[in-house]
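Hey all, quick one. A colleague (J.T.) asked me to put the FE2/S2 (inorganic) cluster job into the tracker so the inputs and the structure tokens live in one place instead of scattered across chat threads. No bug as far as I know, just bookkeeping. Sequence used:
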Amino acid sequence: MYICSCRALTDKDIGTAIQEGADCPSKIYQSCGCRPDCGRCVQRIVTMLKERKQNMIQP
Ligand code: FES
């Protein structure tokens, strides 16, 4: 599923960037080799980061 339509980033792309250590939206864009355009996807990416962090904390 596309999260960022400007840069054609999918949830999988973003998940991979998070797994590789990206811990904020700017690092995720950087890891994916792009920069944000309209910024509409930033909140969704922040939510994904929070979800991943919560999942890592839970046993
Ligand atoms: S939707 Fe991601 S920068 Fe526009």
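Adding what we noticed when we looked at it: The chain has one domain: 2-57. The two ends are 28 Å apart (CA to CA).
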